[in-house]
Design goal:
10 helices, 286 residues, disordered N terminus, Rossmann fold, alpha/beta
Length: 286
């Protein structure tokens, strides 16, 4: 088994920021699926200028779990925790900037994973708009999973909760440090993979710039290495199609916060074109 660095946080709590749109259904499925797999706390967070006290508009946890055949039809609310070990909290927050409000929430109640939906260029831009660098710097250790509404491939299916993690793509360079991203991929494969998961380390650019990364094969995962020359965004997207990636794991500079690191970055541009969910993983502190 690989030597897994347990100092990398792995998902004991998940926050899903929802806007109640149909585009968010796939992101909600990923947040709920991860929470079930990890028996993690799940917070559904909605931000609006004038919040409504009616929680009926939130995505339905029990109905989804019943559809996935993880709960019996008509199960009581308590069954989500009693049967599956998932504690669910629904929160309405007042605010005109969703990103700022999410940052405030995570400052007060830190989580290991934030899950948000994207809708191509417009969806990503909505989360990145405005001056949010200061707010995002407060939760620089939060991994963020961006789930495209129309993803060609995903990890968790909305309809039945089926899990598919066969191929993971990790773009690597000497900076940001890719080790935290690699550790996450290994641990995801260890927990989620039924058969061998192929974790492809992709370097775009001069082959001499490929970082020296020590990897070990495990019972459920193998590593592959790929080198491509060209525009980094084009090549990452092309490689994701080539290996049929279910997940792209992007190392980001952690000291400025995930969203701050995304502004104008390779990761942000990959988000706009990704054929599958993209996980931004802040680099470990030196």
């Amino acid at each position: 088994m690989a030597n897994i660095n347990r100092s990398v946080p792995f998902i004991r709590s998940v926050v899903h920021a929802t806007d109640f749109s149909a585009a968010g259904e796939r992101a909600f499925a990923h947040a709920l699926g991860v929470a079930v797999l990890r028996q993690a706390e799940l917070t559904l967070l909605h931000v609006a200028p004038e919040p409504s006290p009616d929680f009926g508009t939130f995505p339905s946890v029990r109905e989804t779990l019943e559809r996935w055949k993880l709960l019996e039809p008509g199960s009581a609310q308590e069954a989500v925790f009693d049967r599956l070990g998932v504690r669910v909290t629904k929160i309405e927050m007042a605010g005109r900037s969703p990103a700022w409000a999410v940052a405030q929430h995570l400052e007060n109640w830190p989580a290991e994973l934030l899950v948000v939906a994207t809708e191509g260029r417009e969806g990503v831009a909505r989360w990145l708009q405005g001056s949010i660098a200061e707010a995002m710097a407060r939760w620089s250790r939060t991994m963020t999973l961006f789930v495209p509404a129309e993803a060609e491939r995903s990890v968790i299916e909305v309809a039945d909760g089926n899990l598919t993690l066969a191929n993971v793509l990790i773009p690597v360079d000497r900076a940001p440090d890719p080790h935290a991203a690699i550790e996450f991929a290994v641990r995801a494969a260890e927990i989620m993979g039924d058969n061998n998961v192929t974790i492809t380390l992709l370097h775009v650019g001069d082959q001499s710039g490929m970082p020296s990364v020590v990897t070990r094969e495990g019972p459920k995962w193998v590593f592959a290495r790929m080198h491509r020359a060209g525009n980094p965004v084009d090549e990452i997207v092309a490689a994701a199609e080539l290996v049929r990636a279910n997940l792209i794991v992007m190392p980001t500079e952690g000291r400025h916060g995930v969203f701050d690191a995304l502004r104008g970055s390779t990761t942000e541009r990959v988000l706009r074109r990704a054929p599958c969910p993209v996980l931004a993983v802040p680099a470990l502190p030196i």
